[in-house]
Amino acid sequence: MNDRHNTVVIGGGLAGLISTYLLAKAGREVLLVEKKSYPFHRVCGEYLSNEVLDFLQREDLLPSQFELPQINRFLFSDTAGKSVSTPLDLGGFGLSRYVLDDHIYHKVLEKGGAVQTGVQVESVVFDEKENLFRLELADGSQLRAENVIGAFGKRSKLDKTLNRAFIEKRSPYIGVKYHIKTDFDRSTVALYNFKGGYCGLNTIEEGKVNLCYLGDREQLRKYGSIEAMEREVLWKNPSLRPFFTDSEFLFDKPEVINEINFERKKPVENHILMAGDSAGLITPLCGNGMAMAIHAGKLAAEAILEGKSREEIEARYVHSWKSLFERRLWLGRKVQRLFGSYQASILTRKLIQHVPFISDQIIKNTHGKPF
Ligand SMILES: Cc1cc2nc3c(=O)[nH]c(=O)nc-3n(C[C@H](O)[C@H](O)[C@H](O)COP(=O)(O)OP(=O)(O)OC[C@H]3O[C@@H](n4cnc5c(N)ncnc54)[C@H](O)[C@@H]3O)c2cc1C
């Protein structure tokens, strides 16, 4: 196998899959390296903002065998279980990553993109003299590439090898996901607050419901297990509790991740174009990390296709990334603070109820426009 590539994409979440798809579609030689094998579950709320609907439909990247739930209402429950519901201007739809990522992976292959799954990239170094990247994979193979897109998500071994500043900071957050069968309004995305975090619910394909929460690592340590923590902390919200006690849980065990970090990151580091969470994770309560990953994947592919030199590619990418995402990420970090505490969640509920203009503005300013 030829070890030299025009572009290597590291990580096959939405950012990596979309950039690979667009490069392959434009006739560029591209290799995507993903450490897991499709299809697989990920911790994610699986609510997709409609800002990506036109793009996904135009590119035929949505599976057609499902009637996807259209979501146009937002329900907010404070830690005491009192709730308020408000319409969503743009809205979204629900679809599992298990289905969506696998579907796009097959579209990448159809367009002639190469994909290596089940193998991790161990290191990536830019060789200034040769003006190319050298990559080492866990199976011992080595690759060279003119361009590298880093789409390896919120936290990867590579962040350490690249000495990225944020990796030194510990994060208090954990993420947990289930698919359940329960009685839940198809047109609503809900956020139930509890001490130290919040839990999202929305319907996905085949009438299943995604239940996904951001919790506090300290609570997990205190109670010793996910189950005990849920009982002692999440169930204290009386509106959230029935989803745990009266639902059918479809996984044998939950999907869990830790060290979820909302620190600032750079969109280009060591000449790597960082796309999706590897360039910055927006707080999940905004419900548009996937839309941002899709959009960033598109921007990275366009920068490589249109830039005439490395400098131009990087400058184009940084400019478009900053103008679309920098403000949203900043506001997301501020909004994150309104959640997970008793007082703040009551205040937020009252705000949504009595001053809907402010919550509408927050939603507008953390979301992008259809593209
Ligand atoms: C609790 C929680 C709930 C969320 N809910 C929502 C929601 O409802 N809606 C929404 O829009 N967003 C949500 N998000 C955010 C969303 O999940 C992310 O923003 C999105 O998945 C980012 O996509 P990505 O492609 O950047 O990264 P990922 O989807 O994480 O993909 C990164 C990929 O890189 C691979 N990888 C990592 N390191 C290597 C390596 N060294 N070599 C090879 N492969 C590697 C990983 O295996 C992974 O497949 C949520 C996030 C959390 C934590």
From TrEMBL:
UniProt xrefs under Gene3D superfamilies: FAD/NAD(P)-binding domain
Residues spanning the membrane: none
Molecular function terms from GO: FAD binding
Residue ranges of every copy of the FAD-binding domain listed in the record: 6-172
Entries under Pfam families matching the protein: FAD_binding_3
Record's protein name: Flavin-dependent dehydrogenase
Organism: Algoriphagus yeomjeoni
Lineage: Bacteria, Pseudomonadati, Bacteroidota, Cytophagia, Cytophagales
